[in-house]
Structure formats: C-alpha cells, structure tokens
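Working notes for the structural subgroup meeting. M.R. asked for a predicted model of this chain before we commit to crystallization trials. I am recording the input and output together here so anyone reviewing the notebook later can reproduce the run.

Input as submitted:
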Amino acid sequence: MHPWIRRRLALALLICTPVAAEIRSLTILHTNDLHARMMPLASQRGGFAFLATVIRRERAGCNDCILLNAGDVAQGSPVSTIFHGLPIFEVANLLGYDVGTLGNHDFDYGWMQTRKFMQTAKYPIVSSNVVGAEGQLFAAKPYVILTVNKLRVAVIGAMTDDLKTLTVPAIMEQWHTTPVIETARKYAAELKAKSDLIVLLGHVTPQEELKFLAEAPEIPVLVTGHAHNGLPQPLTRDGRILVRVKGYAEELGRLELKVDTEKKAPVDYTWKHIPIDSTSTAPAADVAAAVKRWEDEVSARVDRPLAVSARAFDKRGVKALIEQAMRTQTGADFAFMNSGGVRDIVPKGQLMVRNIWDIMPFDNRVVVGKFKGRDLPAVVLSGRQVEPDRDYTLAVTDFSAANQSTPENLHTTGLQFPDDAGLLRDILLEWFRNKKLIE
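Returned structure, recorded in token form:
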C-alpha cells in the first residue's frame, strides 16, 4: 500500500475513534447555617476554632478540594446581635471559604449591612435570584467558575422563594426573589458550555430541595442550607446528588466526586458528615484568638447569672416559657410565639443572660391587640374555650404580626396589634430574673 494511502487511513481512523471520557476527582467540603455560633454549643459540638482545625485537616494534601458555605453566617449569638454581624464574617474569613451564598438571616440587619458582609468576606458570595425592581442583581455575581484539578466548576448561588416571609418587610421594599428553580436553571443553561460541572449552592427549603432534584436535571450537584438538622445521607435522583449538614458549625460535610468531563456529571461519589467535637479536637490558635477578642467584648453584658432551671427545656418547652413570659409581662390573656423564632434550648442548672440572647437573638418586639373571642386563631387557643363576644388581649412578636398567614404563624390575616410592649429579649430577661427558679 502506498505510504500516502496508509497515512490517510491512519488519519481517518484517528478522526473516527472517539476520545475516551476523562474522569477527574473533586472534593467539596461544605457548611451551612453557622448562625454566628462562634463558641461551642452546650453539647460541646461546634465552635469556629474547632471547625477550622477540622477543615484544615481535611484540606491537608487535598489537591482537588473546595470549601463552600450555603448561607446564614450571621445572626444567632450576642456578638452578632450587638455588632450587627460584621465580626462573624471577619472570623469566617479565617476558615478559608472558596465560595459562599446568602441566607435569609444575612439580611436581618438591613440590606446595606448585607452589602458590608459581602465587602468584608475575602471569598466571593454569589446569589442569582435576589434582585431589585429593575432586575439588577443584589450580589456582584450570580455564579463563579473555579478551576480545580483541571475541572471548571461552576457554583450558582440561590435563595429560597420564602425570603419575603423570612426577613424584615423593609428588605422586600428594595429587593425580591425571582423564582429560585427557574432562575437557577437559566444560569445552568448559560454555564453548560463554560464548565465541566455545575453545583448549586442554595439556601432553600427542604421542599425546594426536592423540587430541584425533580425539575432541574441541568444541575447535577446541590449543596444546600436553611434547614438546620442536616441529612443522614445524600438525596439522589437520576445520578444527581444533594447534601446538607447540621447547622451551628456542628458538622463539616465532605463530598468526594468522580466527574465525567464528557457527561459533565458525577459517575461516583462518597459523602460523610464529620462531627465537630470540641472535647477531642484542638482549636486553631488564630481562630480561637479572633473569637476570644469578640467574645470578650460582650462577656460583661451576657455572662451574668440570671435564674436557675430545675430541668432542661427543649425548643417546644422554651416556646411555652416564652408565651408564659409574654402573658405575664404584658398582662395579655393569650400569647403566641412562632416555633421558628425559638433558637435554643434552656439547659438544666444555672442560667446566664447569654442563654436568653441565644434563645432570642433577633430584635423582635412584642405587640399586643384586642380581639373578640370568635376572632382568636385556633393555634392561639390550643383547645381552650372562650366566649365569642368577649374581648381578649393577644400578645405576639412583630414578626408574627407581619406574617400572620405563613404556616408556622397564626394561620389568619387582618389582625391588628397597635400596642408595642418592647423588645421580646428584654421581656424574657425580666421574667426569668423575677422567676428566679424555672420549673
């Protein structure tokens, strides 16, 4: 055979032979819902300095690692409340995040403060569906593309559609969410040619998580937050994977992927949630020093004896205590506290002022209204009988008053609460101090 013909045949065979798909590894370390809990919890889990040690251990020698955070860095501790969240983002910089997204509570101190959080963060904070009246993005970018182990990893930020009922009304006068799934899918389509893997970094509800798995096949990997309880194992559908760990820095997630660069999807994975145990982990010295600096700023205000609890109260029991305090301190006939507003338990033994700040980190106010018995919501009455034509007073938080119809609130609309009784936190402090013994 003529050499020229052989060369042509060899070239034709080369062109017709498919290029083998390349499989590359990617490791995603992830957290969500830190909620400003820089110190370990009463359970000895969590703490930023201990989380930092575990992150650094997991990243050591890992050439394909990225670290993501799925929102709600701020709000949840005295340091955050007193200093409006900024110290938490300063300390979070030491954890080494590659990308973060916003959570609803990152807006609790006003959207201008959220902008300061984004300026303080030394890592990009992406959000694709929080926009202004003219469609302008609140965040600088809806997504970023990281190059890791020769993989182009696109990370899209996403916020729950429920933001409007989860933050102060003034935020929603300036900013709103576009439909989270529709918006994320739009950006995923845009990113298909630009990336080897698309990751959703979403602060979304469990219901939205399931809808993403059912309706967004363009997004093969989802790292989420908002629900604090974490998942026992990943949620999967058609080869796509969703992971979420416990909040309050109690866990670090490690998702190890084998990514097919032709299919642009994982072909294998392992996932584990790593507990952050402050009794068996040495704190990272630099993070511990930063945490101590800020904790020292507030210690004199919050580390003072308040009352003694004869037993431990879970969050359901704390809700009842809060409602009792609201009735006693305002003289109302009934009181209602939304369960999502109860942020901590009451432990057995000596209680400190800090315990109340942990239970109620929000600057919610108590408001009171007068209503006919027939107009009181069933969730308030809890089976108690009232006279339909008699006037009764009801105390609630301003949050519940503004979001009466949402599932965890009053299940009604139109109730007016004209009287302001003051900060709920102050009411709780006074009630606990006067009670002395909580039984």
